[in-house]
Structure formats: C-alpha cells, structure tokens
Fold this sequence. Notes:
Blueprint: H1 2-13, E1 21-24, H2 25-28, E2 37-40, H3 47-60, H4 66-77, H5 79-109, E3 122-126, H6 130-139, E4 145-147, E5 150-154, H7 163-173
Amino acid sequence: MRAALDDYRAFGAEGRVLVAASLSLSKAYTLYGARAGALVFPWCTDPALGAALAISCRGTYSNCARAPMSVAIRMAADDDARLELAREHARWSGVLIERADALDAALRAEGLQGAPWDGGFFVTLEMPEPMSVTERLMEEGVFVVPIPEGIRVGVCGLKVADAARFAAAVRKSRS
C-alpha cells in the first residue's frame, strides 16, 4: 500500500490530478456482508470537493453500521486483536490455497485446463456456452455462476474432498 501511495504522490507532482483510494474494511476485518470502508483523496484539500463529497456521500450512503465501526476502532487500539486477526487470515488463506490447488489438480486429472487462481474467493473457468454448462452442472448437483467468459466457481465453498467430483462433473457437462 505504501509503495502505491508513493507512486501516486509522484504522479500528482507532475501536475494537477485528483487521486482517490478506496479500501474495504469488511474483508480486511473478516466482516463479510457488514459494509465498512473508505474513499479518501490523499493530498487534496479542496474545500469544494470536501463539501460535495460530504453532502453526496452522506445523502447517498450515510454512515456504515455501528458494528463494523466498533470493530475498526477496537482493532486500531488493540495489538493482541490485530495479531489474532493476522493468525485468522493466515489460517483461512491456507484453506483457500489448499482448495484452489485441489481444484486445479482435479481439473487437470480430468484432462481439462486447470484453475487460474491467484487469490480471492472465486476462480473463473473459461469455457464456451457457460449457460448450458451451468444448467448441466445443476443437474449433477453442482452450482456455479455463469459469466460471459465461462463459469465462476466459489473456491471458498468447495471442500478439498469434493474437488474430484466437481472436476468430473465439469468434464461431463462439456460433452
């Protein structure tokens, strides 16, 4: 994050630019579904922009709920809580890596292209006719989301033990 901000500062020094940075506290603090975040304009002190954003954002979005605000405040003040959160992140990141690796291996074992996962909760498997593939997968009790590029798979919800069954169903659905 620091390197990105330094790059933006250098970019801004070249002329008049408005740089905005956004962040999601929801995922950072494992508060999925409890929306909390920020949109900041570093190095901008324009009072007109501040007033416009205050009015627009307050009228459109209001404030975030008390629970995520309370968590963010607690985390900022509690070193032990931040360490525990880091341990939790590491644990669940490991689970996602295991699941993505199992999916990739299972797909390749079925003679399919592997799963191009590089982080996050989902992976997209490129394939033609994603809607018809999705419908055939549903008949097998496998649920994915069709998107124009292929199918979106929730690595977060796919157990390692289910990867082989999933991959076999994908292969079958493409026939």
